[in-house]
Design brief:
With 143 residues, the protein is of the alpha+beta class. The protein has helices at 61-73, 112-125, and strands at 5-12, 37-44, 50-54, 79-85, 90-97, 100-104. Strand 4 (79-85) and strand 5 form a beta hairpin. The longest helix has 14 residues, at 112-125. It is globular, with a radius of gyration of 16 Å. The termini are far apart.
Length: 143
């Protein structure tokens, strides 16, 4: 098993659409790139279970790596906000860095304590997580 790691997620907005379901059912947050293309991140635990995801989408993978690096560097300064969904009667967490939402729970929870536990698992995984490597340009083949 590998340790916790960030993985990239990409998508394209449908023609004429202004929203996608990232990061959750509330819709797209952030700025997609040209052609409606967007990239975001997920933090996976050792067992490949998703611990959380980026709160916004980015136009390029390089922007995602910058965000991941920033979130990891500010791990000690992250503030947890646990919110109840009044309609669904479920709980979700958000992590804030300098007043900006940087990560959100990937699912909702029936119990508030489970939601707090999930946020703490995300925070515990950050220091040991690996940052994605973005490879650009054509790969050279050697014989």
């Amino acid at each position: 098993m590998s340790g916790p790691r960030f993985v990239l997620v990409s998508g394209v907005l449908a023609s004429g659409a202004r929203r996608t379901s990232w990061p959750d059912r509330s819709g797209l947050t952030g700025e997609p790139g040209s052609g409606g293309r967007w990239v975001a991140w997920r933090l996976l635990g050792r067992n490949n279970h998703e611990l959380g995801r980026s709160a916004v989408v980015f136009p390029t993978a390089e922007h995602v790596v910058d965000d991941v690096t920033s979130v990891r560097a500010g791990a000690d300064d992250l503030t947890v906000a646990v919110l109840a969904d009044g309609v669904q009667a479920e709980w979700r967490w958000r992590l804030l860095l300098d007043g900006r939402v940087v990560a959100v729970s990937s699912r909702s929870y029936l119990r508030q304590r489970e939601c707090h536990y999930s946020a703490s698992m995300f925070r515990q995984a950050l220091p040991a997580s690996t940052v994605p490597v973005v490879v650009t340009g054509p790969a050279e083949l050697t014989r």
